[in-house]
Structures are given as C-alpha cells and as structure tokens.
Design brief:
Blueprint lengths: L1 E2 L2 E13 L5 E14 L1 E6 L4 E6 L8 H13 L4 E7 L9 H16 L6 H11 L5 H4 L3 E4 L4 E4 L7 E6 L7 H7 L9 H5 L6 H4 L4 H8 L1 H12 L4 E4 L6 E6 L1
Parallel strand pairs: 5-6
Antiparallel strand pairs: 1-4, 2-3, 3-7, 4-6, 7-8, 9-11, 10-11
Helix pairs in contact: 1-2, 2-3, 8-9
Length: about 250
C-alpha cells in the first residue's frame, strides 16, 4: 500500500494562553496542501522494519513507527515493512511529520481491516501529536484547544496560486513556544477568516512571526518580497520557518 501524506498551512495562528498541563491553548485555521507531499509505502512483512529516503528525518524516533506501535499494542496487527520518502521540509511549519503519522494510522486501519472510525482514528492520532488529528479527515478546519478541537469550515483556495519560500532553517517548535507570550486577540480568528481574502493582510496574524522575525530578520524580508511580488496574503506557516503567499490565479 502506498499513501501520500500531504502538507498543511496555517492561516492565522494565535497562542492564547498556557494551560496548567504545560500545553498552549491556540486558535488557527489548517488548510491541506495536497500538491506538497511525502510518499509512504507499507507492506505486510515477517519482521518489522522502517527505512527512509529524501530529506533527512531529525531525531532517533519516527512517528510512523510510533503509529505502528499504538495499533500493534491494541489490535495485535502483523508486522510491516515501511519506507518513507520525505519531501515535505522538516521543522518548517508544514505539518509533514504529523501527516506521516496520521496517514500511517489510516493505512494500518485499512490494511488490517481494523474498522476504526475517523473519530477513533483522531483519538489515536492525538497520542502521536497535537496536529495529527487534522490529517485524518484532511480538510479545512478551524482548530482550537491544543489542536484537537476541530470545526469544519467552508474555505476553498483552489482559485489562487500558492508560492512557498523554503529557508534553509529549522525552527524548533519547543523553542518557539518557550519564547512566545500568549495573549487573547481582540477578534476571533474564525470571524476574521470569513472576511475577504484581500483584507487578511491587515487582520489575520501568526503570533510566531514576532519571535521568528526578531531572531531571523531575513524571514521578514522574505515575507515582504512575497507582497512585493504581488501576493494578496502572505504568512509564515506554523512556528516556521516556511513562508507562503497567495496569488491571484
């Protein structure tokens, strides 16, 4: 079985407050970008194995292996051979790792006929990471909580061209959250996102830009270049470092 975990972008990202459990309450809109994707092959095998190619995976553990371990523990699924060809930049705010984990869960569910519903899959996905549940349905969502509270939204950007700037820079999510100052915005992001896209430039913000642009000034210059080139909206995605621009088609 071959699946294609895709990227996402954040349209607005507000860090609202730090919770008692150490996580941060946030609000954001997640939008799937299916043109930018990894390739994950999963085959039944006598012994378990995982390998990867493409962009190097940071760290010693892999989220696809964690997904396998979760379902192996609860359902006794058979061993698999997994190969991940990584194409979505790592540590860039595009959710590539989260997508890999969620798509692995969906693939195991189908391959071994476990018959978990999307709601059940989302609960397993949350054990892998806060952004993972989004990729189960993989459709535009308004996200709150730590990422697990999702509301379907009617947002279609297919009429626009999307351009990425991919800096050679990995921004640690832990580092970004450590330096953020949470605050509640004056207006709810869900209300702002319903305004015309031409107005987003002035009203839809990513709180992590304040930190990232101060530490890496060239990221601000990259965003300004997107606007100079004609973007109607530009932003950093997630906690960075990728920037994107929406252009008229």
């Amino acid at each position: 079985m071959i699946v294609y975990p895709n990227a996402k972008i954040n349209i607005g990202l507000n860090v609202l407050e730090k919770r008692a459990d150490g996580y941060h309450q946030l609000s954001s809109v997640f939008y799937p970008i299916k043109e930018l994707r990894d390739i994950l092959e999963i085959l039944p095998a006598k012994d378990f194995s995982f390998s990867s190619s493409g962009i190097a995976i940071i760290g010693n553990s892999n989220i696809c292996t964690k997904a396998f371990d979760l379902l192996k523990s609860d359902f006794g699924i058979g061993n698999v051979s997994m190969h991940l060809h990584k194409q979505i930049p790592v540590g860039a705010g595009l959710g590539g790792g989260s997508a890999d984990g969620a798509f692995a869960l969906k693939a195991f569910n189908e391959l071994f006929n476990i018959r978990l519903s999307n709601i059940e899959l989302e609960k397993y996905a949350l054990q892998l990471g806060a952004d993972c549940p989004f990729f189960i349905e993989n459709s535009p969502k308004y996200i709150t909580g730590i990422g697990e509270e999702m509301t379907n939204i009617d947002l279609n950007l297919s009429a626009y061209k999307l351009k990425f700037i991919l800096p050679d820079l990995h921004i640690s999510t832990l580092e970004a959250y450590r330096d953020i100052t949470p605050q509640w915005p004056k207006k709810n992001l869900l209300d702002l996102i319903n305004q015309p896209i031409v107005d987003w430039k002035k009203i839809v913000k990513n709180d992590f830009e304040i930190i990232a642009f101060k530490k890496y000034p060239y990221l601000r210059e990259m965003k300004e270049k997107l606007y100079t080139d004609g973007a109607i909206y530009a932003s950093m995605s997630g906690s960075g470092s990728v920037l994107y621009g929406l252009f008229n088609g």
